[in-house]
Specification:
This protein is mainly beta and 392 residues long. Helix content is 7%, strand content 28%. The longest helix has 10 residues.
């Protein structure tokens, strides 16, 4: 039994976008999408407080709180769920927490704060584990003794990583390491402002190059300014993380134009199917889904390129081309909606890619608060959707 005790722009481009580039994006959206065919559709999402165990007995409603619970990350064995929360008992505005379960058939136990070694007095979000479970990537605007080497000195969000010797000890994390000033606090050559780096997603295809996908906002303070970047490192993971060897990062796709993955709109947190690296779930505000930022899916042919396909909203890939639907309608009765009419984001895939964890914003509070006030209750909650792997 594993327990805590045991396991211790549009505006984003600031009007530099030309009408020609927008026309190019519109043209790209009618390109047929390359879709993986080995999984069934995603199920209707379920709030993590409304789960049952393998015997059908309701689980205790302990994962989501009366505060913001957001940006999940799941361990390879599926027994540890990391996430960010503003619930009481933390050390800053957003803290990293972990919930555990004894097996895949058991209920999640009461979440525990990762403690003051990892968490800062600022915002600590978007936990993402390395494949071997020894490294925890996240982003933070924190400063102080547990944030040595900050490039932006708390002015912007930066990418950090913490190490643990025992991958089964969810409270054994060491002082976070800044991933370096090549990838963090990069200066926008146009505005002269430091840029935000957030939402890390680590991927290793075993071919010698390590990949770190993340979102960069070249206009801090403008939440529409995030787009998806990728950084690479050719050394082993420990050396990459401790020696600041991660590259500066480049936008995913063709440089200088709107590629298929990034759009003229907000494109942010990603999750990659780790077994083959050929599917990405992303959160995007591009038109074509529901009312707000929603979850989209993109695929690629090989891990050796960044030629991701034109994204489509989750469970809408049964349609051949993007312009043929609006709000995923008409929708087949046997294909559930995963996206809501509010804000769905922060995707995280289980190792076998049959479980999708994400947050959804309470629609009523979204309309009034935009979830920027951490004192507002029941704003972001964690959900899960499942699918079945089909025969090859």
């Amino acid at each position: 039994m594993k327990t805590i005790g045991d396991s211790m722009r549009n505006q984003s481009l600031k009007n530099s976008t030309t009408l020609a580039a927008l026309a190019l994006f519109a043209a790209l959206t009618i390109v047929p999408t390359a879709r993986a065919q080995i999984y069934g559709p995603w199920s209707a999402p379920v709030n993590l407080n409304n789960l049952t165990d393998s015997d059908g007995k309701p689980c205790s409603a302990v994962v989501n709180s009366l505060f913001n619970d957001t940006h999940p990350g799941i361990s390879k064995d599926g027994l540890s769920l990391f996430f960010a929360s503003t619930r009481p008992g933390g050390f800053g505005e957003y803290d990293l927490w972990v919930a555990q379960r004894d097996s895949l058939d058991d209920c999640w136990q009461t979440p525990v704060n990762l403690g003051p070694v990892v968490n800062s007095a600022g915002r600590d979000l978007a936990p993402n584990l390395s494949t071997d479970g020894h490294w925890l990537f996240f982003f933070s605007n924190g400063t102080g003794s547990n944030r040595p080497g900050s490039c932006g000195k708390g002015v912007v969000q930066e990418l950090w990583v913490s190490h643990r010797d025992d991958k089964r000890n969810d409270l054994g994390w060491e002082t976070p390491i800044n991933l370096g000033c090549a990838i963090n606090a990069v200066t926008n050559p146009t505005s002269g402002l430091l840029t935000d780096s957030a939402g890390p997603t680590f991927f290793d295809d075993g071919n010698g190059t390590l990949y770190l996908y993340f979102t960069r906002n070249t206009f801090p303070g403008d939440q529409a300014g995030f787009h998806i970047y990728v950084s690479t490192c050719a050394s082993d993971l420990a050396t990459c993380n401790t020696q600041g060897l991660w590259g500066p990062g480049t936008p995913v796709g063709a440089p200088g134009v709107y590629d298929l993955l990034n759009s003229p709109y907000r494109d942010t947190r990603t999750a990659i199917r780790r077994r083959d690296g050929l599917e990405m779930i992303l959160s995007s505000k591009r038109p074509g889904s529901l009312a707000s930022e929603n979850l989209w899916v993109s695929t690629r042919a090989t891990t050796q390129d960044q030629n991701w396909s034109n994204p489509v909203p989750i469970n809408c890939d049964w349609l051949p081309t993007l312009p043929q639907y609006l709000d995923c309608l008409p929708h087949p009765p046997d294909v559930p909606h995963v996206n809501s009419d509010a804000f769905d984001g922060g995707p995280a895939l289980s190792w076998d890619a049959t479980e999708l964890y994400f947050f959804t914003v309470d629609p009523t509070l979204y309309l009034t608060t935009k979830c920027q006030d951490s004192s507002v209750a029941t704003c972001r909650h964690l959900y899960i959707s499942k699918r079945t792997k089909l025969p090859d």
